[in-house]
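Q: Could you write out the predicted structure for this multi-component system? I'm mainly interested in how the pieces pack against one another.
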Amino acid sequence: MNCEQMPTRLIGYLDGRAGEAERREVEAHLAQCAGCRARAEELGRLWVVLDELPALEPSLSFDARLRQRIAAEPQRSFWAWLVPASRAVWATAVLAVLFIWLASAPAPHDHVAVSEYGSEEEFRMIQDLPVLEDFEVLANFEALSELPAPPEQEM
Amino acid sequence: MARSDVQLMLGVKEGDSASFDLLLERYRTPVIRFLHRMVRDPAMAEDLAQEVFLRVYRARKQYAPSAKFTTWLFRIATNLALNALRNSRHRGPEVSIEDPADGEEETPLAVPDRAPTIEQRLVERARARQIQRAILALPEKQRVAVLLHKYHELDYDQIARILGCSESALKSLLFRAYEALRVELAPLVGQRV
């Protein structure tokens, strides 16, 4: 074992959780390496210092408060297993409504285009209305058929 | 023969409230102490501990003994503590994790009963604060690892599961954390009272 392997081995050695073989290896290294031995001693002293940290005692009302909260928990009925978790139901319902609303509502850009296109078409029809009316009159005007053929152009 | 945690939890699952009381009796103090060391605030630690046991109770029907009960219990406690610390940081100094202000009432702590003098008690308290500050200064993962390893003696695989890392990564994490504490607490490590 060398000094680079010590960091991960030292913790297990100091807390007594290392196996017999590993413990012997660490001890063999510590016996020959003053640096690692000094570090191990300091860590050992640190652990003693850390034991000085006082521990909080639970308040006397802790259990009573917890029992009160547990008693206030909603009891699930026999049929509750049929009902999935309410939060999931709400989330699904909201998503479904949102999806339907988005799917049914026309996209704002398309709506403008259609309405613009519609009014433009209407405008053109209104503009061309006299021509269409005239075309009908002209197409059915019999007198026009009696007109002499236009003179042929001279080459 | 005492029933194991898993047996008790399976009893809770079946609706046996006495089993829940036994689990509470077993783990009330360790959970509160862990949370107190995590967040420093005694009232907050108790509130969080209430939430831990309430969550255990709520999850009783889904409980499956796939791991040690304490792994599950301390994972809930760890997550709640880390969330509370993050929230308190976002909210500002409303919840202090530093030393109590001067004149603030000290909470009942189980200090070793050696009938110390007032002076000794003041020194002990100052040292305890220094230790607490050094632990709080550790990065979150290192802090959780040290607390669960040093004060609650959880197995490496349990702590690794709680932190979501490998055992070798945990050992490196622990070494770095103890090294940081050794440097920070050098005056205390060098001079024992």
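A: Regarding packing and overall arrangement: The first strand of chain A starts at residue 55 and ends at 56.
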